[in-house]
Structure formats: C-alpha cells, structure tokens
Amino acid sequence: MTGSDGAFDTVCVNGHWIRIPADLRGLVAVDYGRREDYYFEVPAMLGLEAVLEPDSVFYDIGCSYGVFTCIAAALLPQTALIHAFEANPEVAEAAGRVVQANGIEGRVTLINACAGESGAGEVEFYAVPGKSSVASTRNAEILKFHSDARIDRVPLISLDDYCHGHPSPTCLKIDVEGSEHAVLLGAAALLEKHRPDLILETHCLELIGIRGSMEELCRLLGEIGYPLMDLERADLVTPAVFAHRKATEIGYLLASDRLREPAFVEKVQARFWETRTSR
C-alpha cells in the first residue's frame, strides 16, 4: 500500500519499498495511486535479480531519479557500494535526494556526467524538463519532440577511465537513451578484462544520432564474446536476431557469460514466467 507522511511518498516498486520526496511526485515515473506493488521496467528488474550477488559491484549507468539504484541497494548487502551515473544535472540532484531519503547515501557514489566513448572534455546534452525528463539524451533529434529541452554542456566520462580510481563493476545496468554503443566503446578494457554482466535498455532510433546503430551495438557484443538473452522473452538470441527484433522499438538485453550455464538460463526463465503470472 502506498503512503505519505507529507514530506515523502512511500511506494512499493518491484517488491521494494522506496521513499520519494513528495515534491518529486509527477517526475519520478511510478504509480503513486496503486494500493499494491507497482511493476517498473520489469525486463530490467529480471536482469538485476538474475545477476546481483552479495559481492557484486553495481554501476547504474543512466540512473535517472535513482529508482533502480535504491532497488539494487535493497538487493545487495549493507556493505555493497553502488556507483550511479546521471548526465542531466537537475535529475542527478533529485536522484541524490531520493538516495538520501532511503538512507543509502553512504553506499552510493553519484556521478553527474555523461558516460560515453571518451574520458575527456564535455558533450552537448539535451535535458528535457518535467515529467518527460527521462527522454533526456545526447541526440539533438529530441528537439523535434521536446522543443523546450535545455542544451547543457556536461562532462564526458569513459568507464575505463573511471575504473582507474574505483572498483571495477561486476554488473552494469545501462539505460542512456541512445548512448549505449558509446558507453561500451568507452568500456573496452573493462569488458575485456573483467567481463561484467550487462543489462541494457536499447534505443534503436536514438543510437543512430549519437554513435553506432543496433547492428553495430549487437555486433560489438558478439565480438566481445557475450552470449545474449532477450529479457522481454527470456530466450537466448544471436546478435543479428536481437538487432532485427529491436530495429524499430526499445529492447532489453542481458549480456553475460553466465548464459553459457544451462542452470542459470533455466533460473532466469523460471523467474520470467513467475513474474508474468503474478502480474
């Protein structure tokens, strides 16, 4: 059951209670009126549940208002540290407030920067205001749909450079509105050496205006040698099949060496069907 103490709303999201500052209502995209569990980006949640373990180091790339950052904190031990990246300055500030409201500020490092292919300089970022802020992106095409988007200059950071001074992730959740390929290019050494599990939300059209395409993104994952699972179907796919499936729509992809293990695949598929029947 949802609730409010005036200053905060308390909402059950994917089975986890999260406190959200009341003045962010309408910005954080959860259903405040539901009297039971609210299901939020279920395919990405399936991936998180599958790969997070007690010793995981979790990077939330494109954390938005921090909903998945808070869920990951609930899934991980109190000692686990989380690194959350958000390019939109206003949203990053709000994410910090959500993190603080949930008492996990000591566990979360929040980075207001755009993760991408390079660790130097700045990049133009189109920050969409209000409830559509989740559409913020590096792709200038967003101005055709949100003419009120503000153009910011934000730091560009590569994960390879970031990991020089921080623990390398065992799991990356990447939801960056078309910058997916750029993020992976900037994590080439990390992926080759540490092979973290990847949970990607793919944005076929936005990709083209930033860097790469669905075909290039999937081909890169194949060249790295990751087995792939379509998290909306819980089936194993080749890079070419997933690129074709999601050529015109958003997709959710798990890239993980664990997908070579039949027991792991069966666990994810069992949870997939359990989730579908419980909603």
SSE layout and pairing:
Blueprint (H helix, E strand, L loop, with lengths): L2 E2 L3 E6 L2 E6 L20 H10 L6 E4 L5 H9 L6 E4 L3 H13 L6 E4 L2 E2 L6 E6 L22 E8 L1 H4 L8 E4 L5 H6 L2 H7 L2 E6 L1 H5 L5 H11 L3 E3 L4 E3 L1 H7 L5 E5 L6 H17 L1
What does this structure look like?
The chain has about 280 residues and is an alpha/beta fold. The protein has a single domain, classed as Vaccinia Virus protein VP39 (Rossmann fold). Helices cover about 30% and strands about 25% of the residues. It is built from 10 helices and 14 strands. The chain has helices spanning about 40-50, 65-75, 90-100, 160, 180-185, 190-195, 205-210, 215-225, 240-245, 260-279; strands at about 5, 10-15, 15-20, 60, 80-85, 110, 115, 120-125, 150-155, 170-175, 195-200, 230, 235, 250-255. The strands form 3 sheets. The protein has an 8-stranded mixed beta sheet with strand order 6-5-4-10-11-14-12-13, sandwiched between helices. Strand 1 and strand 2 (about 10-15) form a beta hairpin. Helix 1 (about 40-50) packs antiparallel against helix 10 and helix 8 packs antiparallel against helix 9. The longest helix is centred in the last third of the chain and has 17 residues, at about 260-279. The two termini are about 15 Å apart.
